Amino acid sequence: MKTSDFYYDLPQELIAQTPIEPRDASRLMVLSKEDGSISHNHFFDLPKFLKKGDCLVLNDTRVLPARLYGVRKDTGSTVEFVLLRQHGSRLWECLAGPGKKAKKGCEFSFSDKLSAVVADVKADGNRMLEFCFDGDFFAALDEVGQMPLPPYIKEKLKDRERYQTVYSKQAGSAAAPTAGLHFTPQMLDEIKRSGVKTAYVTLHVGLGTFRPVKTEDITEHKMHSEHYYIPKEAAGLINETKKSGGRVICVGTTSCRTLESCAAKYGGIRACSGETDIFIYPGFRFRCMDALITNFHLPESTLIMLVSAFAGYENTMNAYKTAVSEKYRFFSFGDAMFIQ
Fold it and tell me: Which of 45, 74, 104, 303 is least crowded, fewest Cβ atoms below 10 Å from its Cβ?
């Protein structure tokens, strides 16, 4: 298939700039992958579509305030860095802009508690920053870092916690697992009381997931790797659900990629951790996921390709066309869909 097959026309005004309040007041499109039928609901209606014995799989990663502005010590010029992933206690891989001002050996100050030197420049242009700090790095980062909101969001985020899920726990992401932003603690309690299990896995979202597909043939696109972790308790709940005939419902494409990476590697779900660069597009055989909760994704992105692989290409593109005509809100702070 071609990348252009996944294009759809989206009016700019439908790109959500701010999160809706309360979290579960967003709209929810329910799509049948069997016949393509669509119904329009709100996210607070989700519990009525779940069944006793189902298992929700949620990604408990927490977004770092990963956008930093450093002042170069010798020239006074400012460079923006976005932390991508940690390679050691003090070493981080970052995006840098403008890159020409962040050459190997350049030193930057972020605050009186945090500074760094460019230790290396990778072939893809990413920088390796070696940080210097007293005490706890994450505490220093929390003081000066900003949330790495996607470039299509122009509005300033008033509350940083609105770009975190209410169940975020494991710090390490460069972007939020946005399907989970719709859940409230009250809804999660209601879901548990109804006999639906909740399993927590971790995938630290890298910006590579959102990079545009630049190849005409989608099979030539290469994904960046991301770190994932499935604890023993989560693996047990998921396997118990499959054995008893319940549905494994992934909250977000990141939870999906975590489970399907594990299942592809080991033939099933087990407690494990590792790196994944899995690329899911039409033709992929799902081994674990039975249903998916997700937001509406960018045209020609790897995420809409994943959705198409699960729901079917025609069903997906029709659902997106319907969402545009019904004026759903799109992308990170937008509305959701439940594919079953």
Answer: 74
Q: How far is Cα 276 from Cα 262, in angstroms, rounded to an integer?
A: 9
Distance CA 86, CA 121 (A): 15
- How many whole angstroms separate alpha carbon 160 and alpha carbon 193? 30
Burial of 184 (0-12, 13-18, 19+ CB in 10 A): middle
Alpha carbon 97 to chain centroid, angstroms: 23
pLDDT digits (tens, 9 = 90+) for 101-150: 999 999 999 999 999 999 999 998 999 999 999 899 999 999 999 999 99
| CA-derived radius of gyration, the chain | 20
Positions of the chain with pLDDT under 70:
209-210
CATH for 3-63+159-339, among 3.40.1780.10, 3.40.630.40, 3.40.50.1240, 1.10.10.60? Answer: 3.40.1780.10
- Determine how β-strand 336-339 pairs with β-strand 27-31: parallel
Q: Estimate the share of the chain in helix, then strand, then coil, as percent rounded to the nearest 5.
A: 30, 30, 40
Domain ranges, ordered by start, for the chain: 3-63+159-339, 67-144
Whole-structure pTM value: 0.94
Pairing outcome for strands 291-295 and 248-251:
parallel
